[in-house]
């Protein structure tokens, strides 16, 4: 080849580059959560977690203040959770990311608030899962005794089996998990309605003896305040619908629809539950029963109704524990993905597309608490963590509307009467803090000390690993004032 040869000929005469014959480097495939859920699955997640509160736990409010105080607490807590559902529906239909309230706090308030909200969610759902496992064991033991098989059932074995089996189901995929929840939650709600009809509410005095059993207000108006503690148990966990935001096909439609219809379902179920149980059992017994709806069915004397409510209670506890595993793992997964926790927890299973490491991590923790902690203690831990989250939720919606006013970004749902729901939520949270302090002051102080210590650990140690620029996934304009 001479120097005078045309450039085009010289290029053509050169051998092909080695890179052109080698295979192109493989582009790493990002494994993400699947968007497979609809409004029915969102309803099943929210109601499935909460409906167990109608089958157990709420009745401790009766022991605190009497049956009438428990009804007042039920409706006041209903107002609180309606505010929660409306606020959640607006923010989460806009911030559609795994982690729910954690993702909200991350975008709206800041890192320290997001870290704490993530811990609140994990603690609330894990302790609720533990409560469900305890009740499952107690229920099966009580049913075995009614069949004359006393001493043949070890309830701790069923506690462990419940946690392990449901963790495995969650590990294998979210669609099957929440489809199961949809079926068994519907069956559990039907059990409440059937029991209500079977007690002949149209004929006062025939089966239900409210006049003889209510006991008015044995501890006066202070009993209503004390009952607020366990009144939350009727609805605790409805905010868990937001944990599925990243796996819903149409977040702007499915999240508000599933959450608000779920709240309506729970208001109906809570009122029916109180009405039946308070008309069949003296308030002194009702206030300490482990499975009040099942006990109510036994008191009717109908064997088939007892069996039906046994299955309804079992379905409710399984659905709740199932949803709690889903929600706790999503919150922990989101924190790991953002490096608020070790990034190892932010992995997605390449086949099942689930946060499998976060799911497996909580199995031994839940089992340990289930076999060693009393039911009222686990319920209290769950309620306190939820309350702390609701307090920050009220702050979130105020800041959200201030930083991104209506019209500045697209919202899937706009809740009405702002800021009234946020103000009501804060007031009712303060009232419930006081109620919890009256009965469980030591646990309240211990939980606050735990979260303060965890916050100090985050600020002094963990925050340096957080990549602030990678957290903000929403294509929003700069907040007003920045």
TrEMBL record:
Residue span of region Disordered: 1-22
Superkingdom of source: Bacteria
Membrane-traversing stretches: 42-61, 67-87, 108-128, 157-175, 182-203, 215-236, 257-276, 307-333, 354-373, 379-400, 420-438, 444-460
Statement: the UniProt record of this protein carries the keyword Membrane: yes
Membrane topology type: Multi-pass membrane protein
UniProt feature, compositional bias: Low complexity: 12-22
Organism whose genome encodes this protein: Methylorubrum aminovorans
Protein name: Amino acid permease/ SLC12A domain-containing protein
Subcellular location: Membrane
Amino acid permease/ SLC12A domain sequence ranges: 48-453
Keywords annotated in UniProt: Membrane, Transmembrane, Transmembrane helix
Endpoints of the signal sequence: none
Gene3D superfamilies recorded: Amino acid/polyamine transporter I
InterPro entries referenced in this protein's UniProt entry, alphabetically: AA-permease/SLC12A_dom, APC_superfamily
Nucleus listed as a keyword: no
